[in-house]
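Posting here for the record, re: DQA.
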Amino acid sequence: PKLVVLHGPNLNLLGNRETDVYGRVTLEEINQNLTRLAAKHGVEIFCAQSNSEGEIIDILHREGANADCVILNPGAYTHYSIAIRDAVKGIHTPVVEVHLSNIYAREEFRHVSVVAPAAKGQISGFGPFSYQMAFYAAWHIMKENS
Ligand code: DQA
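Prediction output follows.
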């Protein structure tokens, strides 16, 4: 099975960005961890990060559409990108939406995810461990669909 992990805007700064909210773990460490998990489960993995909405959509079309599952952290686009929601809907691949922080415990403008209705499910609030949970969710989905 093939898994795509896609991180949205500002997540490249992880580790020294708002560390009180997001912690000190870097994106590279998160990807390394996911890569290790994937290898252990015989899953092919492709990790990418982009700060631009159009590129996230292109990666969903190009890589996501040909994968068995996508783990997506849309960053701030979560809250207003109908274009990313439509891409998630459009590719037919199940998408696990993930957030490091609990978006429902933060500012009101973060309480709505416009992407979530198009996703298979959402994991939010467990820091870097959110991604590990997302991996197991993806693993479960891929097993069910195989
Ligand atoms: C985030 C939550 C978003 O509200 C925020 O804009 C981010 C990161 C998270 O992983 O907690 O960039 O998606």
